[in-house]
Amino acid sequence: MEIGVPRETKDQEYRIGLSPGSVRSLTEHGHAVFVEAGAGLGAGFTDAEYVQAGAQMVSTAKAAWDRDLVIKVKEPQVSEYPYLRKGLILFTYLHLAADRQLTEHLLASGATAIAYETVELPDKRFPLLAPMSIIAGRLAVQFGGRYLERQQGGRGVLLGGVPGVKPGTVVILGGGVVGTEAARIAAGMGARVQILDISVDRLSYLETLFGSRVELLYSSTSHIESVVPDADLLIGAVLVPGRRPPTLVPRQLVEKMRPGSVIVDVAVDQGGCIETVRPTSHSHPTYVEAGVVHYGVPNMPGAVPWTATQALNNSTLPYVLKLADLGLAALDKDPILAKGLNVQNNHLIHPAVQEMFPDLMG
Known about the structure:
single chain; Rossmann fold; eight-stranded mixed sheet; seven-stranded mixed sheet; 33% helix
């Protein structure tokens, strides 16, 4: 099979769909891999490394897209819509619930679109979402701490505090992978950490991880209203697979936060769980609303592309190999991979995306 790896075009997205190591695995299986020149440089991979791994370098995005299977990291941008076509298999993060325009273009194109974020194991875990969730959770605290600095518009709070001065308060909405990793970093820094989740079983598990270092609360409206105003850093970490998350923090509650507090909504790529959050970019990551600094970059792991590309490839490569070896028959043979199918033959396939866009089901 011919496999294309185009350069990512989302703002300051330096990850790449396949690392040289993954390319080597594919070429050893007899596949031809076409990588757009310079596509891996931002992640620290040179064209020479790809050539050594067996890839063929191509000079244009079109030459990478014009293949049987295209492997990316982020969803196609508007400039890439013309490359979507019948016969193409696209394997990448899509997050269609937050992007009606892309959904419509994929439907019209006839392409087969398989989303990393909805590939699902029988135990309801999401193996291709997990590595980026780990990174995003850890970065949420790293970025949040930075924007709490006075020079960055924050209220000048050091999350870990110092002897004689209380630490900052970090409130995390959601105790899944993102929330757990955010809590791990925040607690490690010495911050006061509170996690809210709707699963009592998950809260019990988190108690085994953190003990008394993290305060664990059931995610009710009253609990959210009681903790958000005192948060120096509020992290949205809610995942509803394939769907927009619920709005847990309305505008009037954000307005009760102290000026210079910071919000980082990791769920922004699915629409966000905080009403005042909107997507931003690595070039312009923050804005101030209601006196609060908002960070809404939907591709946070793109800030650490060397780490993120390899972590992603460790998880995606087995599925990429199946698609390359078997084509669409891989979807019939692997029910886990089949869960990733979002669009095929001009139809919405994934139930969650169908629920988001019932008018596109005709």
